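Figure 6 in text form: structure in, sequence out.
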């Protein structure tokens, strides 16, 4: 869940806020939900894919901007920033799952080393290790943080964009073919959805579409500024809406297990649609400022803490409130209210503390480097 610029753009924040609210709804039990929320819940699992597109765009922009300016990406600074951003909050929530298992959604936690090495998304069967399973998407992002800088350094050797285009094409088509083969094996096996999620949904190598689309959008904006300038949001927004509408229909028809055709085209089509919506929102940034009053920026700012902690809060609500507490709108408001309150506290106490510390470390590093250069 990469953070945006110091001055946050409202367009990406709108998508980030939507993504986390969808993910939270997906994790709520169906029983007792109002009918309209039940319908929206069917799309909740797509919130993670929105996050992937945003991360691809934001991290891609951070690294590729240096390449555009004729510099090699500053990898030590990049990894220091990522470590201070990701690890403290993640370790805190992991410690809560380990030390307070009664508050978790399940007592079966995967081996701790799987979380610490960000490999829990490989072979993840929620029937066996059902606690803190949503860490799978963080694993995908950590692998992305490791692989993208190395890939950019390799591609910098060529002045032509063709190697990068070829690699992006291979990754896109390769993912489509791989998911199709895995889906066919799963379908033939007659196994349940848990096996499909284990082999098809969680692994990094099947979930690169959103990250790839985000990076491609960043590259297009940075390296083709004139073309970017000429693209109208009134083209990208309808195009993105059409793509998302098609995948929305597939979601309602087939659910998360999809269909043979869905296994091939669903993820790249949805990611492309989100990237087009993001492109349109970026183009309209100057016209979206009034939307800051919606609170989307605040929800986006605390989205990382909210993503990591909301299951713990949900099960604390379940333990402290009467049985069947998710009834009509009252339970929905309780869940979102308590989750947002806890995430806000974690953000201001934990995240902001380490982000400020990060700034001090980076300033000290820059000062030391300048001093060394002068001597």
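Output sequence:
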């Amino acid at each position: 869940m990469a953070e945006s610029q110091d001055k946050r753009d409202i367009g990406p924040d709108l998508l980030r806020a939507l993504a986390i609210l969808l993910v939270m709804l997906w994790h709520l039990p169906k029983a007792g939900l109002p009918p309209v929320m039940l319908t929206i819940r069917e799309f909740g699992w797509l919130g993670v894919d929105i996050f992937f597109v945003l991360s691809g765009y934001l991290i891609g922009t951070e690294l590729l901007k240096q390449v555009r300016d004729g510099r090699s990406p500053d990898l030590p600074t990049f990894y220091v920033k990522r470590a201070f951003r990701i690890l403290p909050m993640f370790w805190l929530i992991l410690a809560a799952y380990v030390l307070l298992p009664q508050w978790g959604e399940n007592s079966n936690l995967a081996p701790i080393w799987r979380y610490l090495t960000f490999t829990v998304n490989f072979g993840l069967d929620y029937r066996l290790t059902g606690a803190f399973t949503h860490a799978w998407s963080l694993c995908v992002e950590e692998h992305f943080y490791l692989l993208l800088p190395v890939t950019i350094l390799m591609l910098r050797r060529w002045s032509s964009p063709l190697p990068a285009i070829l690699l992006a094409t291979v990754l896109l088509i390769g993912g489509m073919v791989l998911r199709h083969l895995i889906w066919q094996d799963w379908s033939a096996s007659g196994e349940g959805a848990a096996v499909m999620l284990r082999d098809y949904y969680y692994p990094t190598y099947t979930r690169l579409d959103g990250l790839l689309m985000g990076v491609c959008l960043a590259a297009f904006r940075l390296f083709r500024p004139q073309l970017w300038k000429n693209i109208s949001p009134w083209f990208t927004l309808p195009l993105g809406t059409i793509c998302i509408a098609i995948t929305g229909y597939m979601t309602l028809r087939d659910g998360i297990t999809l269909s043979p055709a869905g296994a091939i085209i669903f993820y790249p089509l949805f990611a492309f649609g989100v990237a087009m919506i993001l492109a349109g929102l970026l183009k309209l940034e100057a016209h979206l400022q009034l939307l800051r009053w919606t609170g989307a920026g605040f929800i986006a700012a605390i989205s990382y803490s909210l993503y990591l902690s909301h299951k713990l809060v949900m099960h604390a609500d379940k333990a402290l409130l009467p049985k069947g507490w998710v009834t009509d709108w009252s339970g929905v408001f309780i869940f979102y209210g308590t989750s947002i309150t806890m995430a806000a506290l974690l953000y201001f106490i934990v995240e902001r503390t380490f982000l400020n510390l990060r700034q001090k470390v980076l300033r000290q590093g820059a000062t030391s480097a300048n001093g060394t250069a002068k001597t």
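Caption detail: The chain has 15 helices and no strands.
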